[in-house]
Amino acid sequence: MDIILLGPPGAGKGTQAQRLVEHHGMRQLSTGDMLRAAVKAGTPVGIKAKAIMDAGELVSDEIVSELIDAELTAMGKETGAIFDGYPRTEGQAEMLDGLLAKHGRSLDHVIELEVNEDALVERITGRFSCANCGAGYHDTFKQPKVEGVCDECGSTEFKRRPDDTEETVRHRMQVYRSETAPILPGYEKRGIVTRVDGMGAIDEVTGAIDAILA
Ligand code: ADP
Ligand code: ADP
Ligand code: ZN
Q1: pTM for the whole thing?
Q2: How confident is the model over 87-94, as a mean pLDDT?
Q3: Does the Cβ of 144 fall within 6 Å of ligand 1?
Q4: Is residue 172 annotated as part of the catalytic site, yes or no?
Q5: Nearest atom (ligand 2) to Cα of 52
Q6: For every residue of the chain, which 3-state class applies, written as one string?
Q7: How large a percentage of the chain has pLDDT more than 90?
């Protein structure tokens, strides 16, 4: 089973993807995470991507599609993929079709997380994650069970993203509307889009997604 999680920044894609990995043994393919790893490692891709990401613009279709290609090559066909934050343009959606065919895979669901944009700024500016394992948290909505200690790995180090400022978030939302939302009609024609209310509690959203996959 291969699925796309679609929604503006802060909609909850990464949070829900982490749950799907735990509950269904699927694999999360987040181009944002891959790019941040490249930035941290100082690879040529990372050096190119850093300023673009800090500005909330999109990295080129070729770069992100090559990252996805490499991951699909490395993982077995039997493991389901969760595309998180990819595709983000019509060009990437076309490239994904080519990659899926190349790797003998096909898309089962496109799940769109519907959210109220006003809530997203609060979600993004309160977002932080474990510096060791990447588990996601929120200042108000999802604190670790023991303050200052990661639920998943016990680490006491956390980090925030440099692009999670109010100004950049507003720009990223505009980019979502102009570049990413237009890929939905193409998937709708194929009859594989399901909308989920992303404004509920994290567990409720997970329940709605589980019902689609069941
Ligand atoms: P995305 O990957 O779509 O950008 P995240 O999954 O990182 O979004 O979520 C953004 C922030 O909002 C995180 O801090 C996360 O803990 C929090 N969050 C995610 N889903 C919900 C929800 N349903 N209700 C409240 N907060 C949420
Ligand atoms: P969010 O879900 O909060 O918007 P991501 O972690 O998915 O954030 O992406 C962070 C940044 O990485 C984006 O603003 C963009 O600069 C870059 N990026 C991630 N995925 C893509 C993609 N598929 N195409 C182009 N740029 C991307
Ligand atoms: Zn951790």
Answers
A1: 0.95
A2: 98
A3: no
A4: yes
A5: 16
A6: CEEEEECCCCCCHHHHHHHHHHHHCCEEEEHHHHHHHHHHHCCHHHHHHHHHHHCCCCCCHHHHHHHHHHHHHHCCCCCCEEEECCCCCHHHHHHHHHHHHHCCCCEEEEEEEECCHHHHHHHHHCEEEECCCCCEEECCCECCCECCECCCCCCCCEECCCCCCHHHHHHHHHHHHHHHHHHHHHHHHCCCEEEEECCCCHHHHHHHHHHHHC
A7: 97
* Closest residue to atom 19 of ligand 2, CA basis: 32
CA–centroid distance, residue 192 to ligand 1 (Å): 24
Give the pLDDT confidence score for residue 117 in this predicted structure: 85
Of ligand 1's listed atoms, the one at least distance from the Cα of 15 is 6
Predicted confidence (pLDDT) per residue in 70-85, tens digit? 999 999 899 999 999 9
Rounded distance from Cα 17 to ligand 1 centre (Å): 11
- How many CB atoms neighbour CB 143 within 10 A? 14
User: What is the percentage of the chain residues whose pLDDT exceeds 70?
Assistant: 100
Q: What is the pLDDT of residues 143-152, one digit of tens each?
A: 999 999 999 9
**Residues 48, 105, 160, 161: which is the catalytic one?**
161
Point out the ligand nearest to the CA of residue 61.
Answer: 2
